[in-house]
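Project standup — Tuesday

K.O.: blocked on the structure for the chain from last sprint. Re-posting the sequence here as requested.
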Amino acid sequence: MFYAFSSFVMAALQRLESKDGMTTMQAINITAVQPGLMVPFFGTTLAHIAVALTAISNWENSVSSWLLVGSLSFVFGTFALTAFYHVPRNNALADTAIDDLNAPHVWHRYLVEWTRGNHLRVATSMVAATALTIAIVNR
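H.V.: unblocked you, prediction finished:
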């Protein structure tokens, strides 16, 4: 999902008139905060915390370092980045009226900042998946 937003969704929204892109992203942000996304997102985060704790408590295990890297990469690079970087930007966008004179500037800044942060989420998700795959293969 993060990759899709980084590779084409945000680029498509940027091609729209400011008011149309902004309206669409505001709708996406409302729709995203539903159980279909929130349950897996929070559940995966809790699972990664459990994996990190297990890795630490079984540190002598040869794959514990990979498990810890993978789980912490997800928790900090995906979950925390979403909570502390993307959500405030989403809220600021939601608080900006489409007809506000400053709306085009808010939208442009949002596109740049949000997408930059999303690229980081893609990278940290890939690090997490790679590290956890290495742990599974070498178990």
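K.O.: great, moving the ticket to review. The chain has a mean pLDDT of 96. DSSP finds five helices and no strands in the chain.
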